[in-house]
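User: Here's a chain of 294 residues. Predict its fold as tokens.
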Amino acid sequence: MKLIADSGSTKTNWCLIDGEKIVEEIQSLGINPFYQSEMEIRAAIMSGFQDFKFQISNAEQDNADCHLKSDIWNVSEIFFYGAGCSFEEKKHTLKCVLEYFFPMANIEIQSDMLGAARALLGRNAGIACILGTGSNSCFYDGEKITKNVSPLGFILGDEGSGAILGKLFIADLLKNRLLENLKNRFFEQTKTTPEEIMENVYRKSFPNRYLAGFTHFLAENITENSIKKLVQNSFVQFFERNVKQYDYQNFEVHFVGSVAWYFREILTESAKISGVKIGRIEQNPMEGLMEFHK
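Assistant: Prediction complete.
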């Protein structure tokens, strides 16, 4: 059996397949070896698997540690696609953790970008993009990524991502650049305060996850002109600063990710403004990855 994982900064989707049959689907916390230690990654994996198929040896109970019963699942191969997995050192960190849980499996770790390309394009050439908590893009020749504009993260880049949309919205909110009724609606719905926002952004871990969480409010209020304009401008920036560095005039541009999916109408409008041809838009890459790894 094969275990396929698609991991972003917010969540990790796992799918166990036996031939063409789905045996189990699980969701755990997001995993990013660029920001997390081995122990933190271990805990993130446990967050999704802890309710079933575990065994705890007496020697391990003092450490509250667990091993997956991978012998029950008989996992022979693991294909892990994740954020922060572009560097060999980070791949090694993650591989050590997966070997701890699945010591008998052959493990392949690749970037979430290659996962998106394989899911969207299979073995065909084209431009693949991710718009989720973060953003990324590449040109894929049907086998490997041949060109990639570095996303640079939500401080220097990540145009069009959930983290950036959240950051831009919160900045406008706290600088009183939004209509009063929209501002009041936000604080009433979220039950948060400016002080709590500053605490989460500047003092707590994963501010990108926190900021991306506000895209739910943006989606619910997308008919507000200020919000629609904010989202559209960020998507146009994504096309201008990333996609247009590829051969976009001869290839369609394909997308995967929750932000691309839930804002697909505005994404399509933004592509037209930028002179870009849109192809597939998928919420997540798992179905395409299952097809690729059959």
